[in-house]
Amino acid sequence: MSRNTRTRRLSLATLGVLGGATLALAVPAMAGAHVGVSPDELAAGDHGVLTFSFSHGCENSPTTALRITMPEGLASVAPTMDSDWNIEVERGDDGLVSAVTYTAVAPVPTDLRGAVSMGVGLDENTPDTLAFPVVQECVEGSTEWTQLAENGEDPHSLDAPAPVVAVTAATAGEHGEHAETEDADKGDEATATSAVSDPLGVALGAGGLVAGFAALVVAILAYRRRA
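Below the sequence we write its predicted structure tokens.
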């Protein structure tokens, strides 16, 4: 094998390794380049704060705004004030919030994580799934995160999935409230039981009371003798 042949093969192998490494790094970056929501689960009839976050712009262009469309089934929407964003609220004919636009005071670089949040209230008739289509505006271009998975389709296979929140049964939240109340009652009972069942503490308290009374009697007798 000639020297030139070895050099050519080594070069091709090096390019292959570099290309594979670049692809391995690019695929996770592309998969993570979306607008996510947290938490991704709420109970029907409950209230919660949803945070929409992103870590990439449009083709590496800084993000300037997020317009989030509200799904049907929300009883209330209250965007969170944030000094990094100007907030514009749109309402439908029914008076409910239909969309919220967060405009960045300064464009968010692609190597920084950006996030906005809002409080939402659900009613008992809220559907099992709430999708929040998002339009991400950038200095150059925009991305519409509006795709929804069909039945049996993997949401992770979508190129531009919309953030989705799953709605669970209302009984889960009610049980949680009852559990908290029961825990509080048990804590009060434990405190009372501890106070009664501590004989040393009771004895010391009684002894202190007797000693104080005896000192008072001695002081009175001494005063009478002087008089």
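The chain has three domains: 1-32, 34-170, 175-226.
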